[in-house]
Amino acid sequence: MIKKCNNSLTSGLNKLSWRYLKRIVKNMACLNNFIDITNACIDIGHWPVHFKVLITIVISKPNKESYDSPKAYQPIVLLNTINKLFEKVIGKRLQFLSISNNFIYLYSCQLGGLKQWSTTDVDIALTYFIHMSWVKNLTISTLAFDITQFFPLLNHQLLPLILDKASFDPKITSFF
Fold first, then answer.
1. Contact 119, 112 (CB under 8 A)
2. CA spacing 20 to 30 A to 91: which of 8, 69, 115, 145?
3. With contact defined as beta carbons under 8 Å apart, do 24 and 47 qualify?
């Protein structure tokens, strides 16, 4: 899961780079400890405060004619690297449960964001579903979001209802 994480990326708040974290999780005992911590967080429905801390830094974009405009800069969010690993584990678990519970239906088309799928043909798939609905005189709605960016804006009373409908384990529903 973390093999593809770039070793040269800026380390997070804990100053731990992906290069070192990759070496740590090669040790089975350490990997099992990470899994146990993730499971414990889900089991008790709590995400530790130190994983929620972040720092935003602003860097200038290269090759801009003028740096008088905010568009010439880009904010970068630095999270705790271990937190990123935990989020990856939880994200993969949610994806697995969503697919295994048939909450996300996989067709022969490609859907972005899913493991081993790409976004190349998502527009074709969406167009197909929309046109098929129109042929049947139906109205179609689509909702897509990156949960890490969307979560702060999400109606937190609605999310548990969605997770319940998707047949998620009550512990996961409670965690979110």
1. yes
2. 8
3. no
75 forms bridges with which residues in the sheet? Answer: 58
- Please count the other Cβ atoms lying within 10 Å of the Cβ belonging to residue 83: 19
Rg (CA), the chain: 20
**CA–CA gap between residue 48 and residue 10 (Å, rounded):** 23
Beta carbons of 21 and 6 less than 8 angstroms apart: no
pLDDT tens digit at each of 176 positions of the chain = 666 666 566 566 666 777 777 888 888 998 888 889 888 988 998 888 888 787 788 888 888 888 888 888 888 777 777 887 888 778 777 777 777 766 665 444 435 555 545 555 566 767 787 888 889 998 877 766 555 565 666 677 887 887 887 778 888 888 87
Chain centre to alpha carbon of residue 25: 20
The amino acid occupying position 57 is I
Domains of the chain: which residue ranges?
A: 1-54+80-100
Residue where the block lists tokens 């405009």: 69
Is residue 17 within 8 Å of 2, Cβ to Cβ?
Answer: no
Can you read off the two tokens belonging to residue 146?
């990156």
